[in-house]
Design goal:
Elements lengths: L1 E5 L3 H12 L3 E6 L5 H9 L4 E5 H7 L2 E4 L6 H8 L1 H4 L3 E4 L4 E2 L7 E2 L7 H8 L4 E5 L5 H5 L9 E6 L2 H14 L4 E4 L6 H5 L2 H11 L11
Helix pairs in contact: 3-4
């Protein structure tokens, strides 16, 4: 499968590396086609890794991952282009964390709407699925880093898109428990888990932990 990754940070690089390991072709997109971080990533991952602009990655990908900084995601997706994403699944991984007042960051989008909803509203012909935003990037692609049973969440308006993403999470990334939270408004809940996630990272002195829902 051809997959577009929007964003050159740790999340995009980690997801992209795993997807290449799974034998997918991955194009990493950024604001500039010659982005230095994307170039380094491509040089480290062989023939299945390429780079380009956000628009290039969106055009290339049958599935697209949004791994951009959440406060800039809408701008990045505008550059990616609505026509280039039309009808495709957009796996929305970002959190709108506002670092303008230092640490810990606050949520720039919360309560009455989520970043996932903002993206779906802006691009109604894109099948947005929010997932993986409640865990560290290394755990996203290797849930066995945390022993025992634990959960990842999905939400989105399109049932078929959620099923395809769930299949990738389970068969590709190794997740055993994927909880469907319903439509894209479920992203309000998962994005607002970030303040407690950040506190827990401080308590545990690292990011290798996750949530388990007991019922």
């Amino acid at each position: 499968m051809k997959i577009g990754i929007l964003g050159t940070g740790m999340v995009g690089a980690t997801l992209g590396a795993k997807l290449i390991q799974l034998r997918h072709d991955v194009k990493m997109g950024s604001r500039a086609a010659n982005n230095a971080k994307a170039t380094d990533w491509v040089n480290s991952h062989g023939a299945k890794a390429t780079q380009g602009t956000f628009a290039d990655a969106a055009t290339f990908g049958e599935i697209i991952f949004n791994c951009t900084h959440g406060m800039a995601s809408l701008d990045a997706l505008k550059m990616a282009g609505a026509q280039n994403m039309k009808g495709k699944i957009l796996i929305e991984v970002a959190n709108a964390l506002d670092f303008s007042k230092g640490m810990p960051p606050t949520l720039g989008v919360c309560n009455t709407i989520s970043l996932g909803e903002q993206i779906q509203n802006a691009y109604p012909e894109v099948r947005v699925v929010k997932t993986l935003n409640t865990t560290n990037c290394n755990l996203m692609v290797n849930p066995s880093l945390v022993p025992g049973d634990h959960d990842v969440f999905v939400c989105g308006n399109n049932t078929e898109a959620k099923e395809k993403v769930t299949d990738l999470l389970k068969k590709g990334f190794g997740w055993k428990s994927v909880i469907d939270l319903g439509d894209i408004s479920g992203a309000r809940g998962t994005e607002m888990m970030m303040p407690i996630w950040l506190r827990l990272m401080g308590v545990f002195k690292g990011p290798n932990f996750n949530f388990k829902i007991v019922h």
